[in-house]
């Protein structure tokens, strides 16, 4: 059970840092609300609600990217990552702890974004919420690993969207499908499959990203 | 390869599409070759992570490099075909084309990643992990795109086996073999070139010391 204790400690560290410094979360909240306002003006009068649903997913995806690009900033600037890698615990615990804290940030951002979307555009259905929850898991799992890669590269924040967006296409298809289709079950299934597959492969391969 | 081209133009019968159906013999084998290259690159990446095989990193990179070139060819031939068949250069509802666009973007990002990392074991590890992601992404994307699009791509293979006349199928097989042979030759050539490059750099550094 020490593995889960490590994971818990790492996730708690990130949340505590955020609580003290408030670096990322306010930026994410402000970003998602202002994007929704911009989208109101992007859509000409009389465009369908379906277009607004699609744009909601764009807003969520870019908000997640914003949060992810800062996620390893503290580790990089203070050199914490070397200490974590040297610590006597499984390296995948670093990934899991970070992914959990990202998941918490995303959930908090969406706690604001979805009611705002309901207020500005149209009420939010249960299938949309289920799609968002499943998509968050996938975004947090894949995004954390890619953020760790991007942090090590020269291009840093620039590289993350390039690495992430092609991998996020199945998430977008599943999420938009779940929120607009008559039978969301198949799309939710796709999201669940994506989450399971990529969580396993990220969990197994994170060690190679941070070690040599 | 020459045999394949000869068969395409002189042996295979025309179907209702006329001459532009000939591009089928280029498009589909090239697409299969690209898949095979990506798969081979992923396999080598797995070998690198698993067995700590030093050469596998370079082999994986070369295979993916070839896969991207063949992927680009698939996009070009596919959109020519789409132009003749459906009258548009780009058809979003054709899932093979969309899939190749996604994969093409993904593997372009692979190159961005590779070139923004300093050479060394960490770059090899990260490239390998990203290449493995690609291999997982292919089936997930196929599923996702199938779900998201209407299915209007002409189905050449169905459950009852190949949906083609015998002579067409023979030509098709010869084309697949020919493109695989081209890809394998290019792979060996590129690999030999890269290895020579590395050896040369090592020798030059040794001379300077």
Would you give an account of this structure?
With 212 residues, chain A is an all-alpha fold. Chain A is built from 9 helices and no strands. In chain A, helix 2 packs parallel to helix 6, helix 3 runs parallel beside helix 7 and helix 6 packs across helix 7. Chain A is globular, with a radius of gyration of 17 Å. The mean pLDDT of chain A is 86. With 209 residues, chain B is an all-alpha fold. In chain B, helix 1 packs antiparallel against helix 6 and helix 3 packs antiparallel against helix 4. Chain B has a two-stranded antiparallel sheet with strand order 1-2. The radius of gyration of chain B is 20 Å and the shape is globular. The chains are: A mainly alpha (212), B mainly alpha (209). At the A-B interface, helix 7, helix 8 and helix 9 of A face helix 4 and helix 5 of B.
Question: Biggest sheet of chain A, open or closed, and with what strands and sense?
Answer: none
**Poorly predicted runs of chain A:** none
Q: Which structural category do the helix and sheet elements of chain A fall into?
A: mainly alpha
Largest interface: A-B, 31 and 31 residues
Order of helices and strands of chain B: HHHHHEEH
Along the chain, the helix and strand elements of chain A come as HHHHHHHHH
Oligomer: heterodimer
- Measured between the Cα atoms of the first and last residue of chain A, the distance is 27 Å
Count of DSSP H/I helices of chain A = 9
Residues in helices of chain B, as a percent range: over 70%
> Which of globular, elongated, flat, extended, rod-shaped describes the shape of chain A?
globular
Give short descriptive properties of this protein.
heterodimer; A: 212 residues; mainly alpha; 9 helices; 83% helix; 0% strand; B: 209 residues; 2 strands
SSE blueprint and pairings:
The complex is a heterodimer of chains A (212) and B (209).
Chain A: H1 2-21, H2 25-42, H3 49-69, H4 73-78, H5 80-86, H6 92-120, H7 126-152, H8 159-180, H9 185-210
Chain B: H1 2-11, H2 24-51, H3 56-86, H4 95-115, H5 121-148, E1 157-158, E2 161-162, H6 166-208
Antiparallel strand pairs in B: 1-2
């Amino acid at each position: 059970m020490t593995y889960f204790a490590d994971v818990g400690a790492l996730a708690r560290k990130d949340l505590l840092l955020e609580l003290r410094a408030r670096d990322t979360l306010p930026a994410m909240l402000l970003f998602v609300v202002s994007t929704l306002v911009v989208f109101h003006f992007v859509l000409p009068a009389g465009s369908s609600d379906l277009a607004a649903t699609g744009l909601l997913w764009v807003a969520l995806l870019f908000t997640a990217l914003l949060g992810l690009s800062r996620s390893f900033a503290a580790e990089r600037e203070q050199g914490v990552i070397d200490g974590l890698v040297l610590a006597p615990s499984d390296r995948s615990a670093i990934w899991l702890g970070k992914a959990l804290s990202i998941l918490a940030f995303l959930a908090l951002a969406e706690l604001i974004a979805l009611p705002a979307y309901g207020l500005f555009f149209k009420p939010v259905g249960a299938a949309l919420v289920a799609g968002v929850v499943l998509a968050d898991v996938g975004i947090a799992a894949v995004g954390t690993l890619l953020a760790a890669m991007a942090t090590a590269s020269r291009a840093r924040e620039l590289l993350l969207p390039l690495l992430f967006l092609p991998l996020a296409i199945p998430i977008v298809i599943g999420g938009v499908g779940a929120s607009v289709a008559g039978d969301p079950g198949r799309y939710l299934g796709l999201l669940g499959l994506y989450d399971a597959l990529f969580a396993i492969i990220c969990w197994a391969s994170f060690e190679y990203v941070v070690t040599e | 390869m020459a045999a394949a081209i000869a068969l395409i133009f002189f042996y295979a019968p025309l179907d209702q599409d006329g001459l532009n159906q000939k591009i089928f013999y280029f498009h589909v084998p090239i697409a299969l070759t690209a898949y095979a290259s990506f798969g081979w690159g992923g396999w080598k990446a797995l070998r690198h992570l698993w067995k700590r095989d030093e050469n596998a990193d370079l082999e994986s990179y070369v295979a993916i490099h070839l896969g991207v070139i063949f992927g680009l060819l698939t996009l070009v031939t596919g959109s020519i075909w789409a132009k003749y068949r459906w009258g548009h250069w780009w058809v979003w509802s054709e899932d093979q084309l969309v899939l190749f666009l996604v994969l093409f973007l993904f593997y372009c990002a692979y190159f961005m990643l590779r070139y923004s990392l300093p050479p060394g074991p960490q770059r090899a590890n990260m490239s390998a992990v990203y290449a493995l992601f690609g291999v997982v992404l292919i089936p997930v994307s196929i599923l996702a795109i199938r779900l998201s699009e209407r299915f209007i791509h002409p189905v050449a293979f169905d459950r009852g086996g190949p949906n083609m006349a015998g002579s067409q199928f023979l030509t098709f097989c010869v084309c697949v073999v020919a493109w695989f042979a081209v890809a394998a030759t290019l792979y060996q050539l590129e690999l030999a070139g890269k290895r020579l490059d590395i050896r040369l750099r090592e020798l030059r550094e040794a001379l300077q010391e």
